[in-house]
Amino acid sequence: SLRDGRDVASADVVWLPPCKPRTILAPGLNYKDHARELSMAAPKQPLVFLKGPNSLVGHGGTTPMPANVEQMHYECELAVVIGRMTRRVSRADAYAHVRGYTIANDYVIREYIENYYRPNLRAKSRDRSTVVGPWVVAADAVPDPMQLTLRTFVNDRLTQEGNTRDMIFDIPHLIEYLSSFMTLAPGDLILTGTPPGVRHLKPGDVVVTEIEGIGRLKNTLTGEASSDRGQGETA
Question: Which residues sit opposite 132 in a β-bridge?
Fold first, then answer.
């Protein structure tokens, strides 16, 4: 329902990202089995990179796939939304700084990754390459964020399934680590990595990422020349 009381179908609206992060932080290789499928060693401390707000797109939007790319992958991830200024927070107090949780589909182009320890911006911070939403679920409505099933469907076929309990570095660890050297602001996003099961995609593929207790997030890949009116803006 809209604020004026009108009811509209979800397909009739443009969904914007549900938060306005100043900073988007994303740890790579945060599931051992995902690192293994990429023939990489699991990191001994969080391997974190930054993404620009230009990369965000909301539920139901489109993401352009560059021409001549063969290894563009989805990545279903639980995203943590920070709720207040966070600096030098301990593991024990970390959850008190979480506003809530949402879903992220953090697309990556493997051909553009020169070094997993220095991810290329062309691979991880492209316009509309980070699908977020549909909404933020309040932290107190998610009893245990470290026990949630993640799934990805490509054209209605299940291609990825995992559980947040398999993270190498859990949410309190990530918040403690990041806040030890930088201040996190309300609305900032911390992505948490993806389980194994990534697959190559092609233009026209419809990708749905799903997290237990959070919802389902839909996105469609297009050719790079396709336009996406309004969908790169934030709410």
Answer: 104
pLDDT tens digits for 126-164?
889 999 999 999 999 999 999 999 999 999 999 999 999
At a CB cut-off of 8 Å and minimum separation 6, what does 57 contact?
17, 63, 128, 129, 130, 131, 132, 219, 228, 231, 232
- CA 225 to CA 235: how far, in whole Å? 24
